[in-house]
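tl;dr need the bound structure. longer version: we got a ligand (5-O-phosphono-beta-D-ribofuranosylamine) that a collaborator sent over and nobodys looked at where it sits. i said id run it. heres the input, straight from their email, havent touched it
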Amino acid sequence: MLVSGNGSNLQSIIDHAEAGRIPATVACVISNKAGAYALERARNHSIPNTVLDHRDFPDRESYDAAMAGILRENGVELVALAGFNRIVSKVMLDAFPLAILNIHPALLPAFPGNHAQRQAVEHGVKIAGCTVHFVDAGTDSGPIIAQAAVPVFTSDNEETLSRRILQEEHKIYPEVIRLYAEGRIRVAGRQVLISPAHEPDGRFLENPPL
Ligand code: GRF
């Protein structure tokens, strides 16, 4: 997994994997920030972890090549970005074709980029949420796999909304990884098809109580 900060999504995925709820393990954690709390979470679970500081590389491509090397050495089959604050280049996309996921705290294609929750509050939307999508060359623009929705109240600010969205992130990200590990995700253009079509427990769009 690729991280830069707190790593609560990483924690949720580790917990699901350790509890046997997803047929996958977190093979390694790479952070571009030395002080990221996510690294401590990895250490707490004896997961190989590395700091790869982008400032030590002349360009995005050489950084990504080094990253792809570490991921391959650790036998990674699926790369999951969780709060990783860097754009990945063609080098990574070619190294892991249709095998890089990201979670974004908005109902894409609304509010891509930074401060999505703040944008949602400022825009006055009534429903916000989160999206797990495949990573492509754009910013938060790849095919959408799963979304969960939450209500936005007039009393909300960026922090309260972020907290509500994060609770849903912690559910849908492990769920998508489970589906991926089970070989049930297929991409046809922008459409992501999950088989079988009816997922009794699935929460690909979770409606908020209104
Ligand atoms: C999450 O809100 C995620 O959607 C966004 O960055 C945040 C990461 O949180 N990409 P954490 O580091 O997983 O706690």
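gonna send this back to them w/ a short note. The chain is about 35% helix and 20% strand.
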